[in-house]
Amino acid sequence: MKKLIILIFAVVLIYSCEEIISVPDISEDFIVLIAPADDTVLEDTNVTFSWEEIEFADQYQIQVAQPNFANANQVVLDTILGDSVQSFRSFSTVLPPNMYQWRVRGLNDNFQTDYTTQSFKVDTLQSDIDISDQVVTTIAPVNNAEITAGTISFNWEALTNATMYQLQIAYPDFQAPIQIVRDTLITTPLYTTTLESNDYQWRVKAINMSSETAYTTQSLSVIDDMMDLSDQTVEIIAPEDGFETSETMVNLSWQGIEEATLYRIIITDLSDNSVFLEQTVTTTDITIEFVSGMYSWAVRAENDTQNTPYTEQTITIL
């Protein structure tokens, strides 16, 4: 009886070993990726990944990282696909515009291949988006600004789906131009040039492959000499330095400076030196709602190219 048990155990063991040995080793096989091809640019967010089948692989693991696996901000996909009778494997998903790497490896019960990796980019066509109803918002120079002759920076807010901008500068204006002094296409929302003293208008529009916005137009005057604000000081009128009050609504006021186009106010909470408020105004006063505490407040005058030093005082809200 004992010999029979040993014989049965040996048969089972041999059969089990044969089963293990019969699982083919695929570790030296190589996954051939079909699509997306390496370094391709896709214009659609619907992405289908496909690769060639390798013999004796029962499953495939696919991973997608953004922007790549070496410096992954995010692994956006990690899944294992089961058996299929197809001669290749595929998987579809939706990915937003960005840089990506994807990789696949084959698996069976005992072995796995190395990953095969490729890169691609999703970049939806901007030219298909109509921007004709959008407006370019200018930042500087502000409308009717007076600027000292010399280097002047024109800038505006970038417009989504624009691929370039056309900027023009006319003397004295576009209604009756004596000269178009600048007419240029640029890809960034910033243009720097030099202008002589004169009255001008400048305008900018956004463009892509299929549409463009209307021009946004502003006026400016370039003068030979502007008073140097850095040599001037804003004189605070009220409240007096070290003022204490139980009122939470406090009006801060100061003397205006002729060449200033705005005033910048910074209020600091002295308990932790954090900024309680930073704001710009075109008037010479501002009403602030405080909470109890001790504050410093500072004001300076600014124009497009210069500013005064800050004038600073303290105030306590009881």
TrEMBL record:
It comes from the Bacteria. PROSITE patterns: PROKAR_LIPOPROTEIN. This is Fibronectin type-III domain-containing protein.
